[in-house]
């Protein structure tokens, strides 16, 4: 039972040092009547671009990688004053990531990714920003300090990371402890151990401990696909999923339980957790809401800012006509397609008329004005790692008859749980998909099998349409469904042909 939560923790593992828009958030920690409580959440980076990889310099200040003027440097934030204390690095020829204070020193270690492709671990003097390489010739991914002389780190090898144990007092000599590990390296409080995530099993990762003195490792628990955890002093683990934090004590708990969820829509895909030494504050990284990312690209387009527009998309963005008629892939093709976009040459303006957001997907009904014409279109966006990973279009077609009446008839029959009237709204060979184009089944026979039992066993079944977009022969409904005492949201994309629903694509 204890691992059920993490079997569904499909937190996205981003490529090392890819730079989505992220923010660093901070919460206060209290223990009241033996229960851990979090309060006063606030965005402490509040900076367009990449802000990530927080660690505490001391109980009242925090380090993180932050983008300024097109480069990534280490910033030290003063929590008590609520402002940045100073920038610790300024490297025009590269960028710094994963900053940590070196034990028993005022200096800071960080990974430097240089423009020439070198990626090494450096030590930085916080007073003057001077630096020196800590481990020569080693391409370090992530690291944690055990002592000022002993370092546990990940070494990038081919397409994986290996866990290494490095003795700096022995001229940087290191040995490999395990192949294929994750990025989360943490000192386990009140022990002489370091935790890491083993990825030897491709189906489900394991959280393990390492004794840096002996090199011995031991499994703590299965942890699914999660990438980030942190430890509280009492041995409680904290991890993020979506817009929530969860907790689990390996010795005391059978299941993961909710610690705190955040209603702020700009807290999604929580990752990169850190706790200060007296466990009074917890920092984490979150992505802005998918709707905000999509709106940013709309605003960039309307401003004629080609660079800002393209930067809203993933490098390998897929652009297609819905569902899978591929138009092109990638930034290069996108730049070619929008090459005339500039403040002087921009022809069209885009206005979002309606917007549906479900999970990481945003569906916009857009009015495009320009060249003396007004055109309607729908854009279906998927957002991953703070970037738009795909954009699918449906364009208006004035020759198509109104598709809404048959969809409304279908809805009324569904709410009445009238299986015959419900099926009458569909074509004989209706096709049912999960978004974007994953086939589920074909035909009324299969549909009857599933919905008959569902209608019979769900006396409270009902759904309402919160938002409806109609374009060409498509109707897109944002649905709020009640079933068996529970509620959930879904989106259904109906395609109508000759007055009947021929295809349905579900987003849940």
In summary, what is this structure?
The protein is mainly beta.
Describe the structure.
The radius of gyration is 26 Å and the shape is globular. With 508 residues, it is mainly beta. The two termini are 25 Å apart. Helix content is 13%, strand content 52%. The strands form eight sheets. It has a six-stranded mixed beta sheet. A six-stranded mixed beta sheet has the order 32-31-36-35-34-33.
Strand-helix topology:
Layout: H1 4-7, E1 23-32, E2 35-43, E3 51-58, E4 61-68, E5 71-78, E6 83-87, E7 94-101, E8 108-114, E9 119-124, E10 131-133, E11 140-145, E12 150-157, E13 160-167, E14 173-178, E15 186-187, E16 194-198, E17 205-210, E18 217-224, E19 229-231, E20 237-241, E21 244-248, E22 257-261, E23 268-275, E24 281-287, H2 290-302, H3 306-311, E25 313-321, E26 325-329, H4 330-337, E27 349-358, E28 361-370, E29 373-384, E30 387-395, H5 404-416, H6 419-424, E31 426-434, E32 438-442, H7 444-457, E33 462-471, E34 474-483, E35 486-497, E36 500-507
Average pLDDT works out at 92
User: Quick one: overall form?
Assistant: globular
Residue runs with pLDDT of under 50 for 5 or more positions = 1-18
Q: Count of helical segments?
A: 7
Radius of gyration: 26 Å
The largest pleated sheet is described as: 6 strands, mixed
Distance between the termini: 25 Å
| Helical percentage | 10-25%
Helix/sheet category = mainly beta
- β-sheet strand percentage: over 45%
Q: How many DSSP E strands?
A: 36
Task: State the strand order across the main sheet.
Answer: 26-25-30-29-28-27
